[in-house]
Amino acid sequence: MSLTKDTRLTLHDGNTMPVIGLGTFASADVPKSDGTEATKFAIDLGYRHIDCAYVYGNEVEIGEAIRSKIADGTVKREEIFYTGKLWCSFFSPDLVRQGLEASLKALQLDYLDLFIMHWPFSLKPADTHNTQPIAFDNVDFCLTWEALERCKDAGLVKSIGVSNFNRRQLERLLSKPGLKYKPVCNQVEYHVYLNQSKLLEYCKSKDIVLVAYCVLGSSRDKDWVDPSSPVLLEDPVLRSVAGKYNRSPAEVAMRFILQKGVVVLAKSFNPARLKQNLGVFDFELNPEDMDTLDGLNRNLRYAKLTVMKQHPEYPFHDEY
């Protein structure tokens, strides 16, 4: 399958998802306005998939960018695929729609194209400015899912999915009595050091699309990434393969994921890199180089979120 920036994967519910998206998470020291400008620039370049989340705290700015590009005629609303995420403190079924409507209000959009559970674990409802320690909750995510199904039926979201679920958690959801809609996707950390081969195989068997974040290793944010972890883009094998194609290591790292049939979220607010990232559609890795890059797998996870390790639904105790 030849890939272009306009290529979309058909989800099992009939909706379509662009294979490359703009990731909009930024650390607290990045001005919110940077997200607005980067999103506008990305849409001008041809990005149509925008990935954000309530907990990122920048939905107002990202929504402003999307709406301005609709207003100036660059895109129509239906050409944009916007992913939002239900934060864990809204998992109680009576709070799910409230969480969704908070995002819709911030974005000033009528609907989301995709709404996903950000993690499989729940947290106690709390004021977003609460500085108290994280308080675990025990809401069954199957009940949360039923509320998401109702949001889809109400026309507030086109598709629903999950993020950071392991196989066991997906199995539990898929075998839930009375399941109305399967998750269309599972958004997970995915890169050459964590190729998720078993999870990918399982999700493909269930017609669930994998969506990849941390595709270049991570932004190395000191608050959540171990500073001693290896820098993925400095890997000598990756750099060697990139040299063969006269491409950057970042382009090769992303192309590898795309050729696996996985959707890539490219996170950058840098105009030059946003443009360069679309170079992934100008070349194709041969089977030998795909195998070489597969061999870099270390099952290394950058986004471990260890603060949640004691939660019964922490997903990373399992092999996959």
TrEMBL record:
Protein name: Rho crystallin
Keyword presence, Zinc: no
One GO CC annotation: cytosol
PROSITE patterns with a match to the protein in the record: ALDOKETO_REDUCTASE_1, ALDOKETO_REDUCTASE_2, ALDOKETO_REDUCTASE_3
GO biological process: steroid metabolic process
PANTHER family: ALDO/KETO REDUCTASE (PTHR11732)
Domain of life according to the entry: Eukaryota
Ranges where the NADP-dependent oxidoreductase domain occurs: 20-297
Gene for this chain: akr1c4.S
Active site (UniProt): 56
Molecular function (Gene Ontology), one example: ketosteroid monooxygenase activity
